[in-house]
Amino acid sequence: MNDIQLRPIDYYAYKWQKRTGASDLARERYKRGVEPYYNALKRITLPPKIKGDPANLERMRIVVEALRRTKRTLSKSSRGPASF
Fold it and tell me: 24 is in which domain, residue-wise?
């Protein structure tokens, strides 16, 4: 498999599979589990980062809130943690 031709989500699932020795089915489940979070991070727009500025905490808050919102959405739409 040529790593350069993969979308980032596929690339990381492939790297995870190589590191862990997991099956193709496990790689697909990993990808399906991670993809909503990956997509949530792609959609956010962060304010500029200024070295040493305490306002950088706002950047962290935006990322954490996006991930929490995704987790809540997934929890409401599924009937348990192992719903892949």
Answer: 3-76
Q: SS3 of 78, please? A: coil
Contact 29, 19 (CB under 8 A): no
Q: Say what the pTM is.
A: 0.69
Place of tokens 């350069």: 4
Over residues 42-71, mean pLDDT: 93
Question: Are the CB atoms for 31 and 10 separated by under 8 Å?
Answer: yes
Rounded distance, CA 78 to CA 76, Å? 6
Count of structural domains, the chain:
1
**CA–CA dist 24, 2 (Å, integer):** 16
CA geometry: angle 20, 26, 31, nearest 5 deg: 95
